[in-house]
Amino acid sequence: xxxxxxxxxxxxxxxxxxxxxxxxxxxxxxxxxxxxxxxxxxxxxxxxxxxxxxxxxxxxxxxxxxxxxxxxxxxxxxxxxxxxxxxxxxxxxxxxxxxxxxxxxxxxxxxxxxxxxxxxxxxxxxxxxxxxxxxxxxxxxxxxxxxxxxxxxxxxxxxxxxxxxxxxxxxxxxxxxxxxxxxxxxxxxxxxxxxxxxxxxxxxxxxxxxxxxxxxxxxxxxxxxxxxxxxxxxxxxxxxxxxxxxxxxxxxxxxxxxxxxxxxxxxxxxxxxxxxxxxxxxxxxxxxxxxxxxxxxxxxxxxxxxxxxxxxxxxxxxxxxxxxxxxxxxxxxxxxxxxxxxxxxxxxxxxxxxxxxxxxxxxxxxxxxxxxxxxxxxxxxxxxxxxxxxxxxxxxxxxxxxxxxxxxxxxxxxxxxxxxxxxxxxxxxxxxxxxxxxxxxxxxxxxxxxxxxxxxxxxxxxxxxxxxxxxxxxxxxxxxxxxxxxxxxxxxxxxxxxxxxxxxxxxxxxxxxxxxxxxxxxxxxxx
Length: 527
Known about the structure:
21 helices; mainly alpha; three-stranded parallel β-sheet
């Protein structure tokens, strides 16, 4: 029986990762709760009363930034509010995915439904109509210092007024053409709506959520290849058992997973009083990594239900605010970037162990006995390059100084840059996992082991794309093919099904969209 996908009602409450995956896919119907819309109407009346009284309202009846003291006459307001969003369409570079932009638009609606923004109900309706029509603005990714995504959200706001570019039914076109094709009209920006459409961090939060979820998926696979490499190297499982009793809660969780994931394999233990730290301490390394990722994920989700506007409507007044600085999310993401470097080093060290010929009688460079070949020595240099690449992107950038807008804007988090570097790390980790799996499969075949369970799944993927190495050959395409399959939602879903880490997998909604929807179709989500 085919089940209809339930809708999601936005209400001002924080999103979950599962909800963001579904919103980003464009395969769910969104609506705004009546309670939330009532809050929007109340906040709007407060803004209109302030404007009517002659009180300057930043970005509504005054200029912004260095032009904050310029007040506009009632006759000038239409031209100012139209120009404000168009002036902030200055982003450049490769566009964000439609998934990120959909989530950013939904997030803008959701935080407005808290009743702390003061925009018109018409602006909410305009966002919702675009989302329902799947008319998605093209948002180029370079254009925010991380203190309100003005150059990113401004591209969405500009499209609302009929300029810029949009994706409609899979085709990229001018915004005016997209509106015409969708049978819609551009929006006339009322006072406050213009600034409300551009001066928030919604694009960065949406991108941070996507990249953090992808990092969680990469770490899940890298943990599995670490277990496979440990088996190939004949590591003792006792440290993984021990950590379940003496480690932190997260370390114990990883230790339990390592034991459970390796139970089906007749574990090839070599005799070592002490294994290398990269084998003994997998639980400690990955325990710290997932602890950080969970903390980062929770912080990102909290931001999806919190107004970071300036000004805001609170206590029945329009107040200036400093909430547009997303430093809490940024600092945790920078910490996550450091965690990625530790995970990369851990995997790289095992790759070196696999190739240096010092365990289980494995030959140097994993060249089978009697064969004339250079083997895997050169490719371990690739693993080293990937580790160095991940490490180079782990240094913090959020505390650097920048002063713009006549000195008014002298704090910034550089969140989009942090996200971009984190995303590049995550992609590098996927390749490192492919290399670790490839080297492990070669070692397993040389020794004559028969991997089962999770290790068997990884082995099958490797051997699907790369034969046992006996004669020197190009490996680039093979590594990329292994990387692509191990990084797929389909493989991750199989891995989770085989041995789950429920508190981690379900929080980040890892795996395929079908797996996520299967868990959520029982009743509509309200967020």
